[in-house]
Amino acid sequence: MQLNRFAEALSLYAPLVEQTTRTDIWLEYGHGAAVCGDFDLADQIWQKILHREPNNGALHWQIAKEYTAISLFSKAGALCAKAAKIEPGNKAIQLGLLSHLAVHRRAEQARAALDDYLKLDPNSESARYYSAHVNRLENKLAEAEQQVRDLLTSGPRDLQILSSCHLELAHIYDRTERFDEAMDHLGESKRIASRNINAEAQRKAFADRREKILRTTNSFPRDILEIWAEMFPAQARTTPAQLAFLGGSIRSGTTLLEKIIGAHPSIVGYDESRAFQTVLPSVHVAAPNIPAETLNSLRERFLKNLTMDAEPPGEGKILLDKNPGATVDLPALLRLFPEMRVLIALRDPRDVLVSSYFYVMKPPFSMERLAQIYSCVMDVWLLVREWKGFNWMETRYEDVVADMHKEGARVTTFLGLEWHENQTRFYASNAEKPVKNSNEVSKPVYSKAIGRWKAYEKHLAPYLPLLEPYCKAFGYSS
Prior knowledge:
Blueprint: H1 6-17, H2 23-35, H3 39-52, H4 57-69, H5 73-86, H6 91-103, H7 107-120, H8 125-137, H9 141-153, H10 159-175, H11 179-193, H12 199-219, H13 224-231, E1 243-248, H14 254-262, E2 267-271, H15 275-279, H16 292-306, E3 318-322, H17 330-336, E4 341-346, H18 349-359, H19 367-384, E5 392-396, H20 397-402, H21 404-414, H22 421-424, H23 426-429, H24 457-460, H25 464-473
Parallel strand pairs: 1-3, 1-4, 2-3, 4-5
Helix pairs in contact: 1-2, 2-3, 4-5, 5-6, 6-7, 6-8, 7-8, 8-9, 8-10, 9-10, 10-11, 12-19, 18-19
């Protein structure tokens, strides 16, 4: 396990755990299963541990963090809440619950968790920060701003809190149209968060990965999907699924679109699951031939992992994997699922860059790096959309905002269904789902994010030449 030879470790743990009830050994076994991408096995192991120790709050909290690491947020949230209930006086657990709720924009529940935490540690930096953060989530901007300023004046010792305070001010200033101040505090937040990061190593790793991705994608002929489909025909696929992929750049409105589509009773939406990452290393996309047995095994694992963090989808449901981060790996995904429908969300590249700069903090990328990442993602898409026999559609964020019913119906039709009345009030249907990337999907569609880049035009100026080809390609040139 310590050598990261997890598959070998699992084969040794399997007989070992039959001979012991030691929690530490079972936890290692579960962690190894998760790292190997066998989320189903990991889940079984963790549930057995919890069944043996139902009143151990610290254990519930530890396993909640394991679920979070593999993006099974509903399961993680339930365990966070249970751990806090078991140990109401444990400050670390109560803070963990508060953090989980805040990250997933659950303002009402976060307020209740904050009240509980304040009773335990009212003067801590964390309590003061989260008090301001929850006020911002509740749109109490003046109160939030004053709290953050007071906390900064006191000189936070925790660098994470210090960085987060500047980030809070950036969001508050953006909301109150003090754009230069917003950019100043956002830059300071990123500088603090980057202190222990090797930027040059990151830059080289990104450049190497980008070059490899584009070289591989560019090497495929336009009829590659037809070639793959002949090598892996429908009758050879033992794990059929009505699978659709929703991708594009980050911050292009994919979360909003997934919630609108996912409100349809015949569609189950999955928000940035790690399911594909668990099979990607085994998909040798450029290999001349991959046995059908291997492809079917990988398809089965992908679908099992995709559907783990929700109720079983039921017969005949369309599974919508919203995962902009996997867009650069579309060739590999299409090699597994040649029949998959692909929906790509577009948004003005300049608005994408501003939004990414505000919301991408782990890692705290610069605007230049974010522009390069956007370029890489959309270069892959511009190549792949030229492939023959490919079932794809582009949809624009601006069109969704202008006429949600019209554009939503067009997208729903692309997926083989008719518009359903539930989709009109998608924000009500999604009120209880965990959301990591936006708190606006619990509200009706609004238009204030369109053209947001103009307020930051002078800050974008160095990167506009890099974005211009994509503005032209997707019809956003002004």
